[in-house]
Amino acid sequence: MGPGPSDIYPQVLQALSRPTIGHLDPLFIGMMDELKALLKYAFQTENDFTIAVSAPGSAGMEACFVNLIEPGDKVIVCRNGVFGDRMKENVIRCGGEAILVDDEWGKPVSVEKVQQVISDNPDAVLLAFVHAETSTGAVSDAKQLSQLAKQNGMLTIVDAVTSLGGVPLLVDEWQLDAVYSGSQKCLSCVPGLSPVTLSPLAIERIKARKTPVQSWFLDQSLVLGYWSGEGKRSYHHTAPVNSLYALHESLVILKNEGLENAWQRHKEMHILLADGLEKLGLTFVVEKESRLPQLNAVYFPEGIDDAAVRQQLLEGYNLEIGAGLGALAGKAWRIGLMGYAARKENVALCLKALETVLK
Ligand SMILES: *Cc1c(COP(=O)(O)O)cnc(C)c1O
């Protein structure tokens, strides 16, 4: 019950152990097509370019930034935790100019501030923000932020690593342009894959580049030849074959449960856990209306030995919870309810274990 990797579905672990076949095998190509369709469902998009980058969420992030940014581009970056800061770092390394919109850790991105910064920087071309900030457990209003960007002719880059499968994320309805996620959070798959979807506008922008993408591996125009092109699929890199079996299986599980049901389950388990945590005297970092059900950050009482508590949970209960990150290090715990981990028996175990250990 940490901030990821989450518990993996047993069926996903089984899928992982199937025989490895060639990545140009017709059977494998069929599975890739199914995988794309399943990812479109998870992202709620019709985007043709919907794939899994062969590396963890950070690579999906980098793929979006290196493909959409050219040197000199002005990018507005929202920062309300660890992952917004990484976005800034990406912009700078792409030769772009990062205009920061800072919010306190634990607060959602301020729509008003973003509106102001956009009107102060009419030449900015992209707006980048984290939908679900895993370092604090705050969810930001992706729909409104995207609307602001659209009104000003900007494209959006959205970090949905922790949101995908856990809270509503409607890529097409909200008109998000470049969205990346991860396999090991609410999808409860093995770490190491990063689902990415690009809108037709994002593809247009990539095609209009004046300079080549500086990363060969993450240049998505090269990757396309391998994920699509009926009958003429070509080698780009060796696919992580077994990890893709696992992702396929985890998405089948999500589809069978139904996205809305998955969101509802995360919410219900969160309410149960939050009730119990508050009864134990722990207070949430994030205000009620901006809390992510899948990431519960709570301050622990003063005088508590953070590391000792987490060690006792691990040794006595086989239960992992996350330490605080960045500004919350040594002050808060991050308790995950991601994917397969969002179950009643886990909530009960966590509350019982914390109660005993804290005493
Ligand atoms: C976990 C996470 C990432 C990074 O994903 P990795 O798979 O660890 O590379 C990026 N953004 C957010 C919001 C995350 O929670």
From TrEMBL:
Substrate binds at R334. Keywords: Aminotransferase, Pyridoxal phosphate, Transferase. Coiled coil: none annotated. Pfam families: Aminotran_5 (PF00266). GO terms for biological process: glycine biosynthetic process, by transamination of glyoxylate. One of its GO terms (molecular function) is L-serine-pyruvate transaminase activity. PROSITE patterns: AA_TRANSFER_CLASS_5 (PS00595). The modification N6-(pyridoxal phosphate)lysine is found at K185. It comes from Vibrio qingdaonensis. It comes from the Bacteria. Residues 22-325 form the Aminotransferase class V domain. Its cofactor is pyridoxal 5'-phosphate. PANTHER family: ALANINE--GLYOXYLATE AMINOTRANSFERASE (PTHR21152:SF40), AMINOTRANSFERASE CLASS V (PTHR21152). This is Alanine--glyoxylate aminotransferase family protein. Belongs to the class-V pyridoxal-phosphate-dependent aminotransferase family. InterPro entries: Aminotrans_V_dom (IPR000192), Aminotrans_V_PyrdxlP_BS (IPR020578), PyrdxlP-dep_Trfase (IPR015424), PyrdxlP-dep_Trfase_major (IPR015421), PyrdxlP-dep_Trfase_small (IPR015422), SP_NH2Trfase/AEP_transaminase (IPR024169).
